[in-house]
Structure formats: C-alpha cells, structure tokens
C-alpha cells in the first residue's frame, strides 16, 4: 500500500516547519541567555569592582568566597578572644 504523494509532501512540510520553529526558538533562547549573562556580569562588577580585569566570573567568585571564609574565621577567632577578655575584665 502506497502513501499518496500529497500526504508525503504535507508531512515533509510539517517536519520542515517544525524544524524552522525549533531554530527560531533556539535563536530566541540564545539571545535571552546572552542578555542574562551580561546582566549577571554587570551586577557582578557592581558588587565586586576589583574583579573588573577578570575574564571568568566563576573563578573570581570562588576566590572571593575563599576570602570571605578566611575573614569569617578571623572574625570568629577575634570574637572568641574578645569575649574571653570581657569575661576576665
């Protein structure tokens, strides 16, 4: 049993239209991704202006997180010493 040529043509056109829709959606998503990445970079640089020279925000963010962790541990150590000193006074 053969399919009519018209039905095959219609299915081929539907597949082409579906693929075209996918490519259009992909283009919109890539555009949106680019806008979001630029917005993230802008907020990142506003928050951490010393990171202006970096090309990879994730590396810079990891370094900043390490610095924050070090500062927190210094703060905790100082706070325990200060509380002990106030206890003795």
Number of helices: 2
> How much is the radius of gyration in Å?
29 Å
Any idea how many domains?
2
Query: SS-based structural class?
Result: mainly alpha
Gross morphology: rod-shaped
Q: Which stretches of 5+ consecutive residues score pLDDT under 50? A: none
User: What is the average per-residue confidence, as pLDDT, rounded to a whole number?
Assistant: 84
How would you characterize the largest beta sheet? none
- The helix/strand series, from N terminus to C terminus, equals HH
Strand content: under 5%
Report helical residue fraction.
Answer: over 70%
For the termini, the CA-CA separation is 100 Å
Number of E strands: 0
Q: How would you explain this protein's 3D organization?
A:
This protein has helices at residues 5-47, 57-88. It is mainly alpha-helical and 89 residues long. It has two domains: 1-47; 52-89. The protein starts with a helix and ends with a helix.
Keywords:
89 residues, 2 domains, rod-shaped, 84% helix, mainly alpha
């Amino acid at each position: 049993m053969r399919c009519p040529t018209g039905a095959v043509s219609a299915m081929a056109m539907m597949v082409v239209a579906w693929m075209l829709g996918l490519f259009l959606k992909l283009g919109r998503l890539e555009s949106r991704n680019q806008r979001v990445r630029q917005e993230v970079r802008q907020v990142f640089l506003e928050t951490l202006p010393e990171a202006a020279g970096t090309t990879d925000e994730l590396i810079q963010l990891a370094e900043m997180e390490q610095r924050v962790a070090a500062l927190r541990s210094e703060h905790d150590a100082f706070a325990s010493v200060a509380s002990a000193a106030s206890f003795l006074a």
